[in-house]
Amino acid sequence: VWSTVPAGPPDPILGVTEAFKADKDPRKINLGVGAYRDENGKPYVLNAVKKAEETLAKQNPDKEYLPITGLPEFTASAAKLAYGADSVPLKEGRVAVTQSISGTGALRIGGAFLGRFYPHVKTIYLPVPSWGNHTPIFRDSGLEVKGYRYFDKKTVGLDFEGLKEDLRAAPEKAIVLLHACAHNPTGVDPTPEQWKEISDIIKEKQLFPFFDMAYQGFASGNTTRDAFAVRYFVEQGHQVAVSQSFAKNMGLYGERVGAFSLVTSSPEERARVDSQLKIVIRPMYSNPPLHGARIASTILRDEQLYGLWESEVKHMADRIIQMRDRLYDNLVSQNTPGEWNHIKKQIGMFSFTGLTQPQTKALAEKAHIYMTADGRISMAGLNGKNIDYFSESVSKAVKG
Ligand code: LMR
């Protein structure tokens, strides 16, 4: 039956983990997938998460189905985290929000909803480059996918002029995907002043802003600061869509905890949107998983656990910044050809190193160091024990 099914390529990000697992060399390092590792290179379960699980175990909760749009306490707290406690549309009951299978699921629900109901041009503009999964998610949701300039290889920074030109040239009312903070894969974010200009262009052209917020807290170590763009756009009257993930900031990767929300113009409109979100979700997976949403909502609703969580997010963000400094110092002291300042300037979990495809290939084959083919490294995979080996190997690869 399946003789005509062609073999597909490995996933550009998760395929790296497969290659890493198959490598038996003790020096191997996985800098592919964006998953936090502690100082010993081990996955890190946050203390706030452990404590929330203890609280939950004592409550001995049942395992009944959640409603289609998820745990109400969780969705309310997630929206508050994204939009802020003082958000006007939240207070006015104008934000439609649903739990999702992490950030990917949120983007997919959003894509499917827009594909079905967005009344204007069904084209979504993604930054170039963007997270590798964005294109298939939106294409499979029935949207046409195009790009706007974002990363400037020459300056290893934001191509702000290119970005503005491309957004101005996009058809009116097209959809624009924006990374709320800690842009993946480049680690390059607009400044607050640049966000304001982007907001003006989006308003002028009546574009529809869809924020992917997968790293709230990871950019600056502060969840409020990292929500600047989303909150500013909402203040400016944009009716945004927001996808949230709790994979990175709560370390809840495999629990698949996320949320998708849409700002609407009235509670009555919100109720209609809510009803259609349910109709989008029900045939996909019926209703979302319970445990992770309970953990996240316990943390978000308890003052002490919230404080502990914030300090742990900051700890993770700070450790990554330390690794950036050490990597930069090592590469410079080893006289590695090139300019390495961007390693320190970039924000969030990733560094877009500028390593070429042959160099990343050589690093995997000769040094057992794995990263995505575009030269992105997950900074969280570096630690005091492997950073010297990593820097020496990069230096060698660049010297050729
Ligand atoms: C990444 O970019 O590495 C993460 O968002 C994980 C994933 O699912 O790709």
From TrEMBL:
Catalyzes what?
Answer: L-aspartate + 2-oxoglutarate = oxaloacetate + L-glutamate
Q: Which domain of life is it from?
A: Eukaryota
What are the recorded Gene Ontology BP terms? L-aspartate catabolic process
PROSITE patterns xref list:
AA_TRANSFER_CLASS_1
Report the EC number(s), separated by commas if there are several: 2.6.1.1
Under Gene Ontology molecular function, one entry of this record is: pyridoxal phosphate binding
Give an example GO cellular component term for this record: mitochondrion
What this protein needs as a cofactor is:
pyridoxal 5'-phosphate
Query: Which family, according to the similarity comment?
Result: Belongs to the class-I pyridoxal-phosphate-dependent aminotransferase family.
Family matches, as NCBIfam families: PRK09257.1
Q: What else is known?
A: In eukaryotes there are cytoplasmic, mitochondrial and chloroplastic isozymes.
Q: What is this protein called?
A: Aspartate aminotransferase
Which species is this UniProt entry from? Ganoderma sinense ZZ0214-1
